[in-house]
Amino acid sequence: MDRQTVGSTPRGRLRVDVRSEGSSAVVTPAGELDHHTADLLREPLEEAVSQGRARLVVDCSQLEFCDSTGLNVLLGARLKAEAAGGGVHLAAMRPVVARVFQITGAEAVFTVHDSLESALVD
User: Fold this and answer.
1) Residue numbers in the chain where pLDDT is lower than 50
2) pLDDT at 122
3) What is the predicted pLDDT for the residue at 12?
4) Alpha-carbon distances of 13 from 4, 31, 44, 68, rounded to whole Å
5) Looking at residue 5, what is its pLDDT?
6) Rounded-to-integer distance, Cα 24 and Cα 43, Å
7) Roughly how many angstroms between the first and final C-alpha of the chain, as a whole number?
8) What are the Cα distances from residue 51, in Å, to 68, 82, 96?
9) Residues 22, 28, 33, 35: what is their CA dihedral angle, to the nearest 10 degrees?
10) DSSP 25-93
């Protein structure tokens, strides 16, 4: 999947890279995750789980913004990954993104790591 935009969203507002690393699918969103770009992240997360990669590591180091829609995408991925025997690990969140998880209490339902390296060790 190489859709770079959804609807009228400006090209390149969110890019998503997916790669395999050991038993994990490492998903790296870069840019802004919101109502207009959520499907660009939702689709590769769901595809990874459907392909048997239930351990999802989301490298948030390049994520500049996340709203409630983005949070819901990650929560949905968490439910699907856990149902498949895995989980979602969030790594290297920037303070502005981490704040959304703190305010909503969502950090309590995810495994959060300071770095991508530590997320891949678990």
Assistant:
1) 1-9, 11
2) 64
3) 60
4) 8, 6, 16, 17
5) 40
6) 17
7) 28
8) 27, 14, 32
9) -50
10) EEEEEEEEESTTTHHHHHHHHHHHHHTT--EEEEEGGGEEEE-HHHHHHHHHHHHHHHHTT-EEEEES-
Amino acid at residue number 118: S
Chain position carrying tokens 């990954």: 81
CB 107 within 8 A of CB 74: no
**How far out from the chain centre does Cα 16 lie?**
9
pLDDT at site 101 = 95
- The pTM score is 0.89
Dihedral sign from CA coordinates of 26, 66, 98, 63: positive
The predicted structure's pLDDT at residue 68: 94
Task: Tell me the two tokens of residue 15.
Answer: 């890019």
